[in-house]
Specification:
Elements: H1 9-15, H2 24-43, H3 45-56, H4 62-89, E1 91-93, E2 96-100, E3 106-108, H5 111-138, H6 173-180
Amino acid sequence: MTTTFLISEAKVRAFTDINNMVDTDLLKNNIRTAQDYYLQSIIGTLLYQKLLSDVDNNTLSGNYKTLVDTYIQDYLLYTTYYESLESIYIRPRNNGLLRPNGGENSDPADKELYEMKRQSIENKLTYYGERLTNYIIEEQALFPELNESNKLYEQNPNYDTKYKNPFALRKSFYAEQAIAMGLRIYNSRYPQFPQ
């Protein structure tokens, strides 16, 4: 379990509507979850461990610093918020899920309102996740750790199942017809390279 964070809980509070009264330990646990669960699946274990090591040793610089400051922190901001939402707004109690309203009082949780808020945050984390993924794919040469893993317990970056169009055309006949009709066909992973 990591104790090194690529984003501070102060930054999470500053850029979201999380109240200052929310327990710091709750936020730190959710930052850890966001890093270990979400981020590591995008950048892989070796790059993830390198970034944590650089932060620990205060040697984060160059392309790695750009990666963290420009792409990873935006992504972690919303993945942390997404993970924190349940713990902040809805508390499991003996008599069901309740929403704290201050002090000892609680109200029944409004599931529709909760789901609406959670969906809004999920939309943002998906956007920043795609942005991070596209950057990693385009700049693979800058981060040799992306493709060095050969151990089963280490996660490799996985770009095959994320953010793809649900419609698949065989490249041959159907794609040629679509192109002839003026439709732009491209691999959803590389939208800047239409065919």
